[in-house]
């Protein structure tokens, strides 16, 4: 299987998106209902924001991070020695049946090649009575910084419109879809909700430069766009960022869909 996320440059990911993941990780862990002494699996661990937050709590018996992108796994392992990191596919998890007490996934499941298969695999590896918690960005309605980018670019470039439609229509992103997927996989006591944080940018350069060197869908589009058109898009996005005020700090909302359940 393959990921729908281009994940070759962990440094670029950290500058674009990973720097905000720790902000979501802490309230997400509070919501997940962790119990001391558990073996906890982070599926789609990426650069390790959630696993690092887990290890810092000193509550789990063991923390394991798994991701399909070896560069991200290598990066995460270099940052956090208290976690066992494994390269693996969410659709074919390299763990025994009923071997995990608590499975978590933060901002990853919408990018797997077959979300239903991934949910089935999570159900397989979680022990009876074990718990699961997952979150995905509400790209369409709650991720302001990306809507500024995609909506502005789409007004100027049909290719951006197509890329926006592909990202915003991905599985698990509609209201209630993540909770429904857990229920369909056989989890019980499923509860869906949302969680909002703020994303702070010091100025327009702080907003734009990570986009210009991005990984993932944003980076795929930026790299494929002719320089003159990209410069025009950048100018219009700068206008949207400034919104009539001097350049400087902006705080943009970011909302994630969250779902929990029991095996």
Number of helices: 11
Helix share bin = 40-55%
**What Rg, in angstroms, do the CA atoms define?**
18 Å
Largest beta-sheet characterization: 7 strands, mixed
Mean pLDDT: 93
State the total count of DSSP E strands: 7
User: Unreliable stretches, pLDDT < 50, 5 or more residues?
Assistant: none
Element order: H for helix, E for strand: HHEHEHEEHEHHHEHHHE
- Beta-strand percentage range: 15-25%
Spatial arrangement of strands, main beta sheet = 3-2-1-4-5-7-6
Written account of the structure:
The chain is an alpha/beta fold and 263 residues long. It is built from 11 helices and 7 strands. It has helices at residues 10-18, 21-32, 49-57, 70-79, 115-125, 144-156, 158-168, 177-184, 204-212, 216-224, 227-242, and strands at 39-43, 62-67, 84-87, 100-106, 126-137, 188-201, 250-262. Strands 3-2-1-4-5-7-6 form a 7-stranded mixed β-sheet. Strand 4 (100-106), helix 5 (115-125) and strand 5 form a beta-alpha-beta unit. The longest helix has 16 residues, at 227-242. The two termini are 25 Å apart. 44% of the residues are buried. The mean pLDDT is 93.
């Amino acid at each position: 299987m393959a990921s729908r996320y281009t994940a070759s440059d962990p440094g670029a990911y950290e500058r674009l998106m990973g720097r905000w993941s720790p902000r979501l990780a802490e309230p997400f862990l509070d919501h997940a209902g962790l119990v001391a002494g558990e073996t906890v699996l982070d599926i789609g661990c990426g650069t390790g924001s959630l696993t690092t937050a887990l290890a810092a709590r000193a509550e789990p018996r063991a923390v394991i991070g798994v991701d399909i992108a070896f560069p991200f796994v290598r990066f995460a392992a270099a940052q956090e020695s208290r976690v066992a990191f494994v390269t693996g596919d969410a659709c074919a998890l390299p763990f025994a049946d009923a071997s995990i007490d608590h499975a978590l996934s933060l901002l990853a499941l919408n990018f797997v090649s077959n979300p239903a298969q991934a949910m089935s695999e999570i159900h397989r590896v979680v022990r009876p009575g074990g718990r699961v918690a997952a979150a995905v960005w509400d790209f369409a309605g709650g991720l302001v910084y990306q809507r500024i980018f995609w909506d502005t670019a789409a007004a100027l470039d049909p290719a951006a419109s197509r890329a926006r439609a592909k990202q915003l229509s991905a599985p698990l992103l509609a209201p209630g879809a993540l909770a429904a997927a857990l229920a369909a996989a056989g989890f019980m006591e499923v509860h869906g909700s949302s969680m909002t944080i703020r994303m702070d940018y010091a100025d327009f350069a702080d907003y734009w430069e990570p986009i210009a060197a991005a990984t993932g869908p944003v980076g795929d589009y930026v790299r494929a766009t002719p320089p003159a058109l990209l410069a025009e898009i950048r100018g219009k996005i700068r206008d949207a960022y400034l919104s009539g005020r001097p350049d400087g700090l902006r705080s943009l909302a970011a909302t994630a869909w969250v779902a929990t359940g029991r095996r």
